[in-house]
Amino acid sequence: MISRAPRQGAQPYEYYVDIIVTLGIVLDWAPAYFFGIDPQTFSFTKYLVLPLIAMDVIRRPTLYLSARIMWFAFLLGAGLLLGSGGGVFLGTVTAKRLWSLLPIVPVTAYFLTPRSADRIQAILRAAFWSALLVPVSLLLSYFGVIEPSQLSADSDESGAEVVRLLAGTSWSSLGLYCLICASTGGGAFLYATKVGRGFFKAVGFGLVALMGLAAVIITGQRTSPIAYVVGFAIAVVLFGIAVRRRSPWRMIIATGVLAYLAIVFIPNQLEDMSSTFSRRWTRVAESRDLGIKLDREQILEEMLSQVREDPRFFPPGMSRLIERSGNGAHILLGEAYFDGGLPLFVAVVVGVLVSLVSATRMLLRSQTETHRATAVVLIAQLIGSIIVTLLNPALHIRLWWMFTGLWIGSGRMLSQRSGVPQARRLVQRPAVPQPATPNRPQSGPDVLPFHS
């Protein structure tokens, strides 16, 4: 399609589609929680995200058929169809399970498409502001303003009550949502030119970071708070190194002062908020003393031993894991192997490894503060997400696959020399004007820019 270049300052069509698709994925849980709509009847993924992705495929078919760009989407799709599809044929995987996993392929493919660092940053900003609804909902439900979606209570060996609550999202996905607050430094690193400027901005960023941490702690999860702290620390250190002229120390100091004031003035409230978290870790310590392994450890050991001793191309099924360990696969790699066999297991492992390389490559190649800050957020989100998924299921979570597409695709978004966004071989460069001749007057370029 030949068209004129967009007017100065205008955003391309894909920019707005990126934002809408991101909002649809991140807020997919909201209609069911706030309005009681059955997710089987209506979901943003079904009626917004997938139709927009289909329209983009129709609009740019050659892009989605490029093996150089879409190789991981092809690998993931092949792993899903050969592995899980073979499991459905053999009866070890249900057709409903395969059907629920199919959307991860188009979601990953869409975010693998080449885009500039500015568009990646727009996606991250949309994800941050929409994901902020998760910690806000958790805190509101904790203080009784709104009803939690799940509330469970049991007693430990001492008779103390252990209460866990959830608002909207699933137990396995809430860590990934709240982690966005940590990897962005409470939103500060998405606005790199404003970091360290102004007392109130620093306090605001610090409040958001502490709010995200408080939200994951009150749920009683053990892994998510650790991933949150690690992601925040990595983001702060990398931002301080990579974006030297925008020191994050004012925001860090504000966060520390706010945390200190909370400890001084509301210690009882903080103790109550962290009681479930501390008691669950006490159970872990007691189990260690008795030589009892955690269920996640048993699942990981069972999966690794089977992959090493008796690898199966087709999935053995969750029933086999339950028979041998007494639990289902509560970790990403376990899900991939027992629901997808070696094809899907290999695809997930390759995706994680290539994500690490690509996100690091983007950071090393970036030449501007904004681009380096975007790369820092991606790396911090990746490290934290790996920690979360090592001990939680995530195969069905589209937010994980959205970021996987961004991580893998980010390494080729910038040119090595100038840091200017480009998509090589996908954009036809304007022809170089030839010298004018008497028979053919020269009035300008012969070829207009090509926009795929």
Describe the structure.
- With 452 residues, the protein is mostly helical.
- It has one domain.
- Helix content is 63%, strand content 3%.
- It is built from 20 helices and 2 strands.
- A two-stranded antiparallel sheet has the order 1-2.
- The protein is globular.
- It starts with 12 loop residues before the first helix and ends in a 42-residue tail after the last helix.
- The relative contact order is 0.13.
Order of helices and strands: HHHHHHHHHEEHHHHHHHHHHH
In terms of DSSP E residues, the strand content is under 5%
Query: Which blocks of ≥5 consecutive residues have pLDDT under 50?
Result: 1-10, 414-429, 440-452
Main sheet properties: 2 strands, antiparallel
Strand elements, count: 2
DSSP summary: helix tally: 20
Note the overall shape.
globular
Mean pLDDT across all amino acids: 79
What is the C-alpha radius of gyration, as a whole number of Å? 24 Å
Helix content: 55-70%
Number of domains: 1
The spatial strand order of the largest sheet comes to 1-2
| Helical/strand content category | mainly alpha
CA-CA gap between termini: 7 Å
